[in-house]
Amino acid sequence: MLERFIKKEETAAKHEEAFVGEKENLPAHIAIIMDGNGRWAKQKGLPRIAGHREGMKVINKVVREANHIGIKYLTLYAFSTENWKRPKAEVDFLMRLPEKFLHKELPSLKENNVRVTIMGTLDGLPSYTIDAVKKAVEETKENNGLVLNLALNYGSRHEMIRMVKEACREVQEGKQSIEDIDENYLSQFLLSSKLPDPDLLIRTSGEIRLSNFMLWQVAYSEFWFTNVLWPDFSEEDLVEAIRVYQKRKRRYGGV
Ligand code: FPP
Known about the structure:
By secondary structure, the protein is an alpha/beta fold. It has one domain (28-155, 196-247): 3-Layer(aba) Sandwich (Undecaprenyl pyrophosphate synthetase). It is 47% helix and 13% strand. Strand 3, helix 5 and strand 4 (147-154) form a beta-alpha-beta unit. The longest helix is centred in the middle third of the chain and has 24 residues, at 88-111. The protein is globular, with a radius of gyration of 19 Å. The relative contact order is 0.18. The chain binds farnesyl diphosphate.
C-alpha cells in the first residue's frame, strides 16, 4: 500500500517536474478520439465490452493529468451518431458508461473544480444516461477549472446540418441577411459554441481518420496519432502529445 502511495507520489512529482518552466504554448483545448477498446479486448481474449470498461477507467487518469498540466478544455468522443450501428448489447453497455463513470467520479470531479459539459443530441438516449449527464452538468456548472466536454451521441455532419437549419430559419424570419453570414455567425450554432476550437486532436489505436468528429472545429487543429490502444493510453502518452504540440509551428494558412 505504502509502496503504491510512494509510486503515485513519484509519478506526480515526475509530471510536475516535466512541466516546470514548460507551460508555454500549452494547447488550451485537447480533443480525443478514444479508439481501440474493441481490439484491446480481442487481444486479451475478452468481450468487446471489457475494452470499453477499461477505456472508461482511463478517462479519469487523463482528466486528472490534463487538469494538473493546466489544460482548459478536454473533449472526449464517447459515442458517435454512427455507433448506434453496433450490436445492441454493446450499445446498451456503452449507454451505461456515463452513468457508471459519473456515479463513481462526480464527487472527485467536483472536488477538482472540473466543469462537465455535454456535446451531442440527448434525444434518443436512455433516461438513465440523460439523468446522469444532466446531474453532472448541473452540479458542476459553477466550477471554473478544466471543462470536461463529453461528446455523446455526437456527429459532426448532424451538427452542421443543424447549424445550416438554424441559419436558414433566421434568414427566413428576416433576422439575418444572407450576405452577412460568415464563420463567426455560423459557429454560434455549433454544439461547441461555448468552447474554443481544439488546438490538439489526439486519436489512439493507429487509425488515421476523423470519423465525423468536429469537422468544422478542427480546421486548424494540430493532429497527433498514436498506435496505443485507448485502454493502454497513459498520462505519459498525453504528455508526449502535448510536447509534440508545443514544438509545432501553427501558421493558420499564413507563412
Ligand atoms: C472506440 O473503440 C471507442 C468507443 C466507441 C467508445 C469509447 C468510450 C469510452 C472509452 C468510455 C466512455 C465513457 C464515458 C464515461 C463517457 P472501438 O470499440 O471502436 O475499438 P475498436 O476499433 O478496436 O473496435
